[in-house]
Queue: 2 jobs
Job 1
Amino acid sequence: MNRKLAAWFLFFLSLILSLSGLIFVYTGAYFFSLSKGVSPYLYVIKQGIALMIGVLLALIVNTKFNYRKIARKKFLWFIYLFANLLLISVLIFGREINNSKSWIVVGGISFQPAELAKVLVIIFVSGYIQYKYYQIKDNWAYFLGFMFLAFLPVLLILAEGDLGSAMILSIVIFAVLFITGFDAKYILTPVSAGAVLFVLAVVTAPYRLARIKMLLDPKEYFQTSGKYSSYQLVQAFVAFAKGGLFGMGIGQGVQSKFLFLTFAFSDFMFAHIAEETGVIGALAVILSFFLFLYFGLSIADRSDELVGRSMALGLTLYIFLQAMVHIGVNLGLLPTTGITLPFMSLGGSSLIGCFLAVGLLMNIARLLPGESKVGVKLDGRGRFA
Amino acid sequence: MIKRFLKRLLNRIYNFIKPFKYERLNAFILLSFLLVLIYTYRLLSLALWDGQKWIDLVSEQFQGKIMLSSEKGEIIDRNGAILAASRPVLSFYIRPTEIGDKELFKQLLLGKKEQYEKYCKEKKINCKKLISKISPIFVFKESEIEKAYKKKYTIVKTKSGKILKIPFVWLKKDVAIDRKVAYNAARKLLKVYYNLSGENAFKKRYPDLLGYVKEYVRVYPYAVGSTVVGVSNKFGEGLSGLEYVLQRMGILTGKKTCLSGEKDARGRVYLGNDAYLFVSREKGQNVQITIDGNIQYIFEKVVSKYGKLWHPKFINAVLMNPQTGEIIAAVSWPFYNYMKDEPGRSSEKLLTSRFVTAPYEPGSVMKPFVAAAAINEGLVTKDSVIFCPATLKIGKYVFRNEFHGKDVKERVWEIIEYSDNVGAIKLAQALGKKKLYDYYRAFGFGQKTGVEIPGESPGKLNDWKKWRDVEFATLAFGHHIMVTTLQLAAAYSALVNGGVYVKPKILKAIVDDKGRILKTFQVSKGRRVISEKTSEVMRRILTMVVEEGTGKPTKLENFYVGGKTGTAIKYNRKTGKYDKSRITATFAGAFPMTNPRYVLVVSVDEPKVPKNMLWATKIAVPIFRELAERVLLYERIPPDRKLYRIDENGNFTIIDINRDFLLTNGLQQKK
């Protein structure tokens, strides 16, 4: 695929997703905001402002920046430091809004720095791999050093209590390592260690076990009150069921209207979309994110240098994985984590972060070396494709 | 070879479709595609074929339904007095687990002034005004609140057998407060509570810490007629009597409107837009019944008096209008007392309407039907002379002429007057088995009367082809046949009203709240059983029973009363013999006899009295007399025996009238 076409496809795809997201945020949060006693337009207006900022940011990054310059050594360390500072500042000054302590309020505007920090971490990781590629590849000590650097922000996110985001970020880091051609043992060892740790964490803590059990049998935990009730999950299932093939119509979703699906505009956005637009709308969303992955990966595919490839992959995967985890949670295939749907769920910081990623992807596509006009290239095995 | 070929083919296909040049990127897209496929499958299954289960799960536990059990209609008596009605009450509940500051909430409920003053100071409003608005619901005692706090949950078992804890406890039931006042008061109180405790109502799953439900309790203002009217349980469902029947017929409850709507997470039910406007809570229809509350009260008092005196198994008394079949009073002692008893298993027996549910062997009260049949068929006239021997042997059984004790010649009306078994048998034999059976059926025996009282028994009358000779003989004086008190009343009505059998009737009309009749219940057309002339003869014969025969204690000074006693000794199943110490005493009669307006049947089962008292004359007749006297007094019926006249000069004269109504040409000496 033509790289420029891919870039613009990416951009418009995200724009369409976010614009339709505005509608669903409005319908999903209408009664919630009424019950909170605020204007039903408040969330949409906030989201709209964030969208404008995000689109502007993406266009600016696309035209005025150069991803190679961002990934220069000095700048890289600055980015890394900034990301960690943001995360630490959340831990210190964080305010609890909507049951999660990830907000910072400056001058009346509240935002979630972690959303920006995650994108910065991905930039850092891909840049750092380019610089220390051979050292990391051949030397365990360097590798461990890299792991420490990469996972420090992950640990900080974990300290905030956002297990889902931390998991997604770690998967993205390993995926970047994987795509840059690292030996399987480098990747498999920490992955398996992480998996063992995860299992241990689940088995030792009864509440985590309860969450897994709840996932396996939502019926049983429907009535249990408190944190480990599958109440919301079952309500999401009901939303899917009530939506059926064509949906109940936009603005007609009962589950959000009657506050069964309390977070229809954030954690359960996908279920809300499915209720209002049915299987067709839901499939369109899934397909859109798959297309996003495809366009993002084609940009990574075209890039012949390490930094471009790993950055494109990391940013694409970051958005795609978030979407997949969100949808998986909604469908009852993954434990509840509180991951929002990128572009669509309510959350200005997340939207801006996502559009920053889109801008970078476009930038990578724009600055790629030109393709040969002959259109015939050697593929990996030396055959003509 | 094939393997290699396949491998190469696969390779080529892969090379053709693979999207990226980096193999590891292809791996990513492949994995993602698999993930998307899984998600799609799950999405389709949830949305299209597996989702109903989750909808069911939700609806099972939070049914989005409002049952508008509209107010039940009233049951009123023939004069318009309310026998049963619904009264709206409020039942208050609290949610103890949702209350953060229980002490504060308790103090607010009890109406402690300090807390309210604190609130008023903060808000700068008039405290007295606030308290006066909330004060209507200061009806709870501290002990009640503590009890509710302790209970915490209401435990409910679902259909699937799961035990649920619902954060909901009844605080006080059946409080008589106006709904609007209670609504305002509860809302204000919650506002004060949320303000003082600093809790956020929106963060609670159930913000209605205190609430109420409007309910209706069934009340019985006159507290009479329990055996007819029946009772309802606390949910307003009829359990027995007319309460049950009329509910089954859907009259009293009217239409039960069930509005299915969506219920939100806070417990409010939202209906569809169109449902809201067009539903009016229609009260059930009022039903007027033929019972007269005052006469019913008289009956209950009198019957209880004798019940306590003799401790029989039951005493039934049914008063009927012979012309229309309307049941004016019907009582069965022991009966349910609205003031004392509670509906439930223990009171089940008290609520049985034994005058329709308990058939028994009636005894001699059946003899007039035999005589009426014989006269109606033209086999005999009332003055025909019949030879009645002292003993009559049929098979190995010997029947005795008990009153006379010797061979006598009697007229037909004397057989009834002296209740002569042998004479009755002779009349029956003259009729033949089939004719007797046909007449018994025509008088309504062996079949349900069809009155709208639940649990009616048809009694028992075997087919005539199965009758043995002895059985046939005993049938003439009311053995080997089971009848209910109401059947007897209906049959006697046919005997005296001119010979037409009318179906007994309890429901009169459906009336609105102002007493206007909306619909009268269909009166079934009667069927002629005996000719009018025979009926008139029977009236005179029955009058003679009271004038000179076994019913003498019933004789009233101003009225001609007619009737027939019946003393049936009961069959003992254990010994297989008739037990002379256990009897069923019956008196069935009508008054005033020249133009019968009332038919009254009294039956007493197994009275525990000394042996010389074991006669219907001593047991059933006094009850009959007392009831008849009081009914005549209450209804102010003009006497048909004596005429009281004051002439112009102020002289008071009493004239005997209707002297020729009595029969005088008897062959037997009066004792």
Job 2
Amino acid sequence: MNNHITHTGENYGLYIVVWLGLVALTLITVALAGFNLLYLTVVTALAIAIVKSLLVVNYFMHVKTDSPVFKIFIGVSVATFIIMVILTFFDLTFRVPIK
Amino acid sequence: MDNNSVAMEIHRDDTGSKMGMWLFLLTELLLFGGMFLLYASYRFIYPENFKVAAERLDITVGTINTIILLTSSLTVALSLAAIRNKQKVFSLYLLMFTILCGGAFLVNKYFEWSTKIHHGIYPKGPEMANLSDGEVLFYGLYYTMTGLHALHVLVGLIFIAIVCYFVYKDKITFDNNQKLENAGLYWHLVDIIWIFLFPLFYLIH
């Protein structure tokens, strides 16, 4: 069994395009922070951060082209985290304040 | 028995190595995740205090640091591509540039923290007594989370410096570069954490 992986003919252009996208998204978030969007402020900021991290994970960390097992790893961890977030916010929202 | 003539084959499992790295990275995700959860909970309880406290953070420095980290992520990804394309010297230059970027990030962070500390904003600092509960919590989280992140930047820099030495010594080559990829994965994780820290601390208005 050969466990050695050899990649050849890597394309630099794709990485540079992804980087340009990441920088553009950063500037968009900063520009949007100047407007008062009320509740949408945090939603847009997080949405842009999620898009940026998906770019990094898929292209810089090669998850898009790697074995699907890495997508399962990440999916299980992120799902665990989201469950923790949902349960915590149930508690925060419905807890009776201590007098 | 003539065992001496049997050539030794050094076992190497690139996929296994990468899986181990990813499992470690995902524990890091949950470590920072817990802190993000704490941040979200306190921001939910003290939304106004968090806005007031965030106004004292410098958006320009935060933006510059974000772009520095994104660029360093690009160069570490390119260095892996370069070594796979048998361009050892180019790969070395890219790794050194990455180290330079990480250093610049930490220098900016140093000045940013110094300014805050100079103004008396640090745990038990003189200015903290004048702040509301929510603001004190904001700065507590700010120091803890950006501090732990900066520690990760430092570890990443050491990791990349070691990998850089391996490339120089030809221990990492075009067909044996999993160590470089793992160092890159760690560095990208540090970048992703900052991608979330930046808007949550600097851009609340």
